Amino acid sequence: MRRPFLKMNGLGNDFVVWDARDTRLVLTPEIIAKLGSRDTGIGFDQMITVERSTVSGVDAFMRIHNCDGSQVDACGNATRCVGRLLLEESGKDAVMIQTNAGLLSATAAGAPREITVDMGKPRVNWDQIPLAEEFADTRAIELQIGPIDDPILHTPAVVNMGNPHGIFWVKDIEAYDLSKVGPLLEHHPVFPEGANISLAQFIGKDEIRVKVWERGVGLTQACGTAACAVAVAAVRDTRAGRKSKIHLPGGILNIEWRESDSHVMMSGPTEIEFEGEVDLETIEWTKTAPGDNDQAQEATGGAA
């Protein structure tokens, strides 16, 4: 059976998006992992299934699987991508997306293909993140990796933005091999559900450079919930104001933690890379239509 899909990304954080509102789609973790492989499959950070919502007034339900087949509750960049699709399809000014982490609204940010998502309120209590033991202050918990007298990383801030995040403030994010320490910290016993691990470095007033090891994915070009978590942690520790620019390897996300209702607003670009079809029995896939950049190049006479 051949099934159409979209390949999209938000700042390089890439997804395969299925429309399952009319035709149900259920894939095993093994098939998802094969599709997610960058060597043998389509290759993606997350697989997104857009389904019909059972909640009145909600435009769609978004199901999220990591490239290893595990299911997660939230993905900020994927929410922006799905938000763009629903906004363009409906012609509405705002759409509501149901996730396992709650209801999220999406609106156009102003610039072409830029989308703002209301990510809701951050959760900062130890049992909301969750942590395996009680910490009175989650702005800097007792956790370190490396020798006791000379740890490599220590005292992260922890925040839940639909999934758990640990944030280590450092002077230079390039001074650490996140590909080595990320897996150890992701599965540290203090995080019973695992965690996304970020290194965060201030590069200017309210501007933070971030590198992310994403739970169930690995190193990623961008992580929307991590950007939100870093911005919230910076405000809580009086390191930054309510509005900040988060610089990720794939680009910049603008984050605002609103004082009026404590909601976190995330704005940034989206991209359709291409349209495709995949045979779900053989996992063979083909491109069927160009993406945003290809169409822009064709319109200007550039090479596709």
UniProtKB/TrEMBL annotation:
Active-site residues, as the UniProt record annotates them: 75, 223
Family matches, as PROSITE patterns: DAP_EPIMERASE (PS01326)
Annotated substrate binding sites: 13, 46, 66, 76-77, 163, 196, 214-215, 224-225
Main location: cytoplasm
Molecular function, one GO term: diaminopimelate epimerase activity
UniProtKB keywords: Amino-acid biosynthesis, Cytoplasm, Isomerase, Lysine biosynthesis
Cited InterPro entries: DAP_epimerase_AS (IPR018510), DAP_epimerase_DapF (IPR001653)
PANTHER family reported in the protein's UniProt record: DIAMINOPIMELATE EPIMERASE, DIAMINOPIMELATE EPIMERASE, CHLOROPLASTIC
Record text on subunit structure and interactions: Homodimer.
Family assignment from sequence similarity: Belongs to the diaminopimelate epimerase family.
Biological role: Catalyzes the stereoinversion of LL-2,6-diaminopimelate (L,L-DAP) to meso-diaminopimelate (meso-DAP), a precursor of L-lysine and an essential component of the bacterial peptidoglycan.
This protein's name: Diaminopimelate epimerase
The species this protein was found in: Roseibium limicola
